[in-house]
Fold this protein.
Amino acid sequence: MKRVMSVATSDSGAGAGIQADLKAFLRCGVYGTTAIAATTAQNTVGVTDIYPFPPEVAVKQIEAVAGDIGADAVKTGMLFNAGIISAVAGAVRRLGLPNLVVDPVMVAESGATLLEPAAVETYKDGLFPLARAVTPNVNEAFAILGEPVEEAKIEDCAAALYELGPEVVVITGGHTSAGADLLYDGGRFERIEGPVHPSENTHGAGCTHSSALASFLARGFDPVEAARRARAVASEAVGYGLGEIGAGAGPVHALGGILERGGR
């Protein structure tokens, strides 16, 4: 079985973060491991507090997992500050961890800020050059470049992000009018279509997508096919979103389709 590590933050409401990543790994048929960089006090309504750990906490977990279980891919989620991002980048580089998927989480579904502004440059200089793929949503993509969101310029945005060093850029389309993901690999733009569900239960959709992408890269699919499959998994998870959980934006349900098809 392929092994995929999530380096991210704990969500006490279990809709996003490490918890969503583990659900997505299970859905995609890989063995998931974790390195927890921070923890949050949050639910479907909002994020009450964020508690970042010292950077060496994530590094020690990465080293422990890599030294025994190993990793066929790694995804990063919410890392919160420059110190953590830099330390994680150093560990990935030193240990030679493959198939790095960087999800530059910046803002929660509830609107809470999940990345210190000063950390953006550390993402660009530290993690992006190591990445097999980066997976910002459209708002994050333009924010990384310090530009206002203009959907008409999304291809230019993807090309500019590609120049920062990743092998592939995937701008997820959940926040765009068309709803399609855009992939750029330095030679071509590929629009990745899929069902768009008119649902408010999207908490964890981005985490699910990046975890699925890492899973399919670990399983040997090329980036375009991995992105297509990740889009399908994330879209299905939104379609089965759990509106009955909490009073805010409900969590996605990565296993909903499998459970339904299994007759349970």
User: Anything to note?
Assistant: The first strand starts at residue 3 and ends at 11. The chain has a mean pLDDT of 94. The two ends are 25 Å apart (CA to CA).
